[in-house]
Amino acid sequence: MHQVFRGAARIAAVVALTVSGGALVAVPPAIADIGSDMGLVCSGKSGTHEVALRIETTVPTSGAVGQPIQLGTIKIDIGLPPELVKEVSVTSPSGASTPPVTGVTPSSVSSPALGGVAEIQVAVREPGGDRRAGWPAFALAAAPPRGDGAVHLTGSGVAPPVVPGSPGGLSWSAGEVDLSLVPGDTTTGKDAAELALHCVAEKETVLGTVQVKRGSETAVPGASSASPGQAAAQEGLCKIIPGRGEDPRYAISDDPKLAEIYESPSTPSSLFPFYAPGQMYCIKATGFFNIKKAGNAVPVAVENNARALTATYNGNPIFGPNWSEFHGYFVNRTYPTPATMLGFGFMPTRAVARAVQVGAPGTGESDPITGNLRILQRLATFDIPDPTVENQEIRASAYIRIKAGQTEVNGVPLDLGDKCMTGPTLLYANGFMGNLRTGTTQYDQGQTLIAEDFKIPPFSGCGVTEDLSPILTASVSGAGNYANLESGTWCNAISGVNCVNGAGALPRTFSVDPGGDVTAVAKPFVLTRDVGGGRSQLRCESATMRLHMERGHWQSRFRLAKGDMSLDGCEVEASDGVVHQVGEDGEATQDGSLWLNMTIDPSGKPVMVVNGVLLNAVVGVSEGKTCTLRISDQLTDLFPPPPRVTDERPGEIRGTYGNGTFSLNESTLKPSVKSTCRIPGFTDFNGVFNSIEGDFVFDPAQRITSP
Fold this sequence. Notes:
With 707 residues, this protein is mainly beta.
């Protein structure tokens, strides 16, 4: 825990100049103070205590649909009764798991030496529906005594922007708080015990409200013309950029570095390409950016305008290769955003910066200003011929500069001039979209994009009366930086499909608490098939999944957890009514790893999907004789006709999740062609189990919410 505290305290003032460039909010015309004083009742091992919480922040006085609204730095003050402070023991086990934190406020007093973490559950409410605000966990440190008899802890942090989906009043409301209190000096690095408390307000408190207006349409220089129906996509940052062949500045670049994404694997020359203006997409993504020199991560948000499918290469599911790829280009459009941090661990710094996408070095005015895009995905779930690409993925590359703007240090303006920026640097991002084991997602459904070893070049042109460039370069520039962004479904700006108020949808990320190693047990677990008037079943007294889940906010819906599974007390009932025992102890096994994925159904309920299911059972069929029964999904060869099952592939089980229980309702499981058993009811490899029964109870119970 203390290493996290120290890492947050090392953020340099100039870090704000770099990381804030990815956010979506323009500098607001007016700022209003919001917040509240709340009374909390907190309970834990030490009993019940009354705790005071004060929240302070700022918010723009107005907003627009589709335009993100950014809160200012959030400051919190927690007043603890002295008797609670005495209960924080230093003798209980150390090393308690704590969430990532942001915004340490160092204390100037040595007694009492107390720190901790506060997680405030904040909801965003608007006419179109409610959602979690995704506030960070706040690192807490002791504040000077105030003479009111309470022990005060303070902290600060920055929350991700909120994009209104409907006009009207948008508000933030707080009701529950989780506290982790730690004795000792949180800056020394010594381990300490943790006292966990869950706190509830007497009633939910509204922190503040913003009036949201409908967005207005704006034009983009060089943009394609659109019909009135298409113009709905022009709201906010969602702009229609020219299609292939309409403007030489909007095209796939042949710059060697940008073109590397097309080199391996190379596009098969036997495939006939199809060229078109391309589908116009607007894509929102949120995530975090690690700056190596600062030792910390900061939330960021971006929006891309992309032309995909300007070149399409389709394989052949019969003769191969069984995969397809799409080429295109994109422009990353962001607004400069104010960000407030603690420079050098103690100095409040407010800065504005932006990431500016530029053309390749050495190009002219008529050369592409766009980045390159490549999408690789399996054409269909057939096995012959094998796909050239096993993993589906998306790749993107572009050149950007980081430009620093208006800056204040402890309220004093720092004039960097209007030419403070880095040189061009290559940004390469890759998104894994799955394989047959993990499950797959289509490119336009959103994915996690990762940029590794991103290099920040030296700054130049910073300062008016003196050259401040070396300070920024020394504090920020260098290699080894890392970005992780989760994108939402891609808004088709022409057809309006998957668009929210004429723009890209926010990503469906998830928050997990408490995380860690999880055991999920279903009693019983039953697969049933109705066959020719009879019934065949695999019945198990229990099925146990063992998963590892990371605690935290904004986690990807795709591959949320990895684990395995075992089944106990199993037997097989054939469609002729004969019951066969499984092994000597009724144990069946899972072959390989499981992957847990989450999504949200149209009604807003979370849906849990477990991919990679491949069950293996040794079944006794007669005295002293056994066979192997495998349960999986299937791979099919279409040629020569008729279609025939040729191999197995892992299947999936899915259902609803709530209150710590995963309730199954469907699967893609079938008897596998690799089974050696010839048990009636288990020999039709095309026949799916039409019923699955099982309620997996998670221990410890996990709160999985979006976001």
